[in-house]
Amino acid sequence: MQRVIFDGCAGWLHAGTGPLGTRDTGVVLCAPLGHEAMWAHRAWRHLADQLAAAGIPVLRFDYAGTGDSSGPSGPSGPSGSSDRGAGSGEPGFIARAVADIAAGAALLRGQSGVTHVVLCGLRLGASLAALAAERVGASGVAMLSPVADGRAYLRELRALHAGWRNSAIPELQPPPAPAGDMDVLSFRLPAATVQAIQAVRLDTLDRTPAPRVLLLDAGPEHVSPAPALAAQFRAHGAQVRLDGFDEYPMMMRSSEFADVPARAWSAVVGWVTELSRLRMVTTEDPVPPPPDTLVADGVVEQPMRLANGRLFGILCTPERAPADIVVVFPNTGGNHHVGDGRIFVELSRRLARHGVAALRLDVSLLGDSVCAARTMNLSTIYSRIARHDVSLAVDGMRAQGYRHIVLAGVCSGAFLSLHAALANPNVTGLVLANLVKFRWDAADDTEASDDLRSARVYLAAACKWENWRRLLSGRLGVGRILSATLRRIRHRARAAGGGANTPEGGESAVSEFACGAVRELDRRGVRTDFVYGCSDVGLRELRLGFGRQLEAIESLPSVDVRILPMLDHSLFLVASREAFAEQLLAHVARVRESLARQMVRVDRAAPRSTVRPPRPVRAPARTAQNPVARQKS
Fold first, then answer.
1. Closest CA to 375 of 258, 228, 234
2. N or C, where is the chain less crowded by C-beta within 10 Å?
3. 593-626 burial by CB neighbour count: b if 16+ within 10 A, else e?
4. CA gap 246, 226 in Å, rounded
5. What domains are defined for the chain?
């Protein structure tokens, strides 16, 4: 698995390594968009691995403006950024994505030597594959639960987002998206992208996208476009295979629980294998490999293999001046290193432009790490292995020469950061957003706590594709959703007030661990900022740990808690991501101020003829003002 950069796109080449040799056909995987790309990342990665294991070279990649690729977030701008083509003279997202697919196919041909290319797309990626196939000269197209009608797809996305807002954050009133833009969970589609998707109509194509087509049908026949598309493509002379995709709902759900669809992926591998032949490996001069480092907009991003290759990350650094501070972002839940709404990509590049390095980390069982697991659950996400992985990443950053290492995590990422900091003295700062658990023990492995189910499992249910498809078809009553929303509000009220039930003996255990942890961090001078939304479920654990008035941290100058009015649990809201970014940037600014003060002290103390290096910095006491936060004088 080799990271590659082409035309501003970041991707992975999976070499065909089958036991019988390499085949003459390669596959370009055309990813879905937004949250669907996040949820399907694990499945997509393992499909690439399975194809490669069958001797079929594969390219999977992020379109420009998405994932790890360059450019502002075309389909998901952090604060309403506009699509390409909105007065810029550049192509819009659909046209640019089609061009990216064509460039990817050319790269795959050049690097692997294949003579035939198959495009394989999921959801909107299937539509993009169909639109790009003629330009690529594809010998086949695999369309997995394709979007045939852009208008219908947008209606589905609106229902999904409304369901999440009404059930997960009913008490928050975020500012609306700019006119014409559309929020879908953590991703914002600019108006131009919305219009381009709306215009997608595969049922009006007057040709077949390729001579051979595989269609995997995820929906019931009366609402699915797949049977009609199969008939349409056959009428234009294609050889079409139409199969079911009943594993789709279990794949297209929150990444903590998303499955790899074994039967569907076997069908895809088998179909591509039937189209291809084994080929002789030539001894021609090898083609120079493409770059693996992205340089754009004042930042440099390079892949990192840490802990003897077990961990993967993207290290983002300033293009010119070196940095001595690095921020490490562990995974949130089961997501890969990009983060919901592309949060860690945007934040990494923002930090680099401020002279600070950042590492987007995949722990060993997630994302693009070499041993990423096929299945996931909360116990694995919170496991000792994951905690140790973050500590190993800290060691790796120290070995790279960074003297000041800040861990910044959201939800489970905050948990991993806290425990890595307790285990590793090289950590000098922590920014922990919406921490739900101070510790994880055998009881948590047996069954996830109510708060975790409230925070992440409920999200999965609220965003479940099958539920919202049933709602759109009238088979799921609105009353049930309203009842669930009311229950959610009551739960939030109890959590915010600290009145939720606690297992017998649990309060003292939580308090003992939490107080001991922050006292140790304060003793070491580790600047520790806890950040919560005003009604977050984690407030219950916070008050169990530190007292109803947070009195346990009153005397700890390096520990602080901020409670913000607009911070949803997973930072799906644009306003929430911006609030987290402001807290992190303020934290880093205080570290730099402390560094500057320490250098002045060292300079004054040193003899005129001697230049002494500064001692390792300790995080400063907080001085920033925040009227909503709990403040120390």
1. 258
2. C
3. ebbeebeeeeeeeeeeeeeeeeeebbbbebeeeb
4. 13
5. 7-149+189-275 (3.40.50.1820), 294-448+506-605 (3.40.50.1820)
Contact 363, 407 (CB under 8 A): no
Three-state secondary-structure class, residue 329: strand
Closest CA to 93 of 356, 265, 358, 101: 101
**Scanning the structure block, which residue is given the tokens 């394989």?**
120
pLDDT bin (cut points 50, 70, 90) of residue 364 is: very high
Length of the chain equals: 633
Distance CA 256, CA 335 (A): 7
Q: How many CA atoms lie within 13 A of 193 on its CB side?
A: 28
Condensed to tens digits (0 to 9), the pLDDT of residues 280-301 reads 555 466 688 899 999 988 999 9
For 531, list phi and psi in degrees, rounded to 5. -125, 130
User: CB-based burial of residue 89 (10 Å sphere; 0-12 exposed, 13-18 middle, 19+ buried)?
Assistant: exposed
- Classify strands 325-329 and 404-410 as parallel, antiparallel or unpaired: parallel
pLDDT in tens, 41-87: 999 999 999 999 999 999 999 999 999 999 876 544 333 333 333 33
* Alpha-carbon span 329 to 190, nearest angstrom: 27
Q: How far is CA 18 from the centre of its chain?
A: 30
**pLDDT for res 601:** 62
**Distance, CA of 176 to CA of 504 (rounded, Å):** 43
Provide DSSP, 228-277.
Answer: HHHHHHHHTT-EEEEEE-TTHHHHSS-TTTPPP-HHHHHHHHHHHHHH--
DSSP string, 37-56: HHHTHHHHHHHHHHHHHTT-
E-strand stretches of 109-175? 116-122, 140-144
Q: How far apart are alpha carbons 368 and 361 in whole angstroms?
A: 9
Q: CA 104, CA 133: separation in Å to the nearest integer? A: 12
| First and final C-alpha spacing in the chain | 53
Phi, psi at 480, each rounded to 5°: -65, -40
Q: What's the token pair of residue 394?
A: 């800290």
Q: By the 8 A CB rule, do 96 and 63 touch?
A: yes
Whether residue 500 has pLDDT greater than 70: no
* Bridging pattern class, strands 311-318 and 58-61: unpaired
CA–CA separation, 100 and 65 (whole Å): 11
pLDDT band, very low/low/confident/very high, at 442 (cuts 50, 70, 90): confident
Task: Please tell me which residue, 472 or 436, carries the higher pLDDT value.
Answer: 436
Tell me the percentage of the chain whose pLDDT exceeds 70. 80
Please choose, from the candidates 548, 550, 560, the residue with its C-alpha nearest in 3D space to the C-alpha of residue 521: 560
Has residue 606 got a pLDDT over 90?
no
Give the residue-averaged pLDDT of 389-418. Answer: 98
| pLDDT tens digits, 192-227 | 999 999 999 999 999 999 999 999 999 876 578 999
Q: What SS3 class is residue 146? A: coil
597: CB partners within 8 A, 6+ apart: 620
- pLDDT above 80: residue 32: yes
pLDDT of the residue at 608: 57
The mean per-residue pLDDT over the stretch 303-317 comes to 98
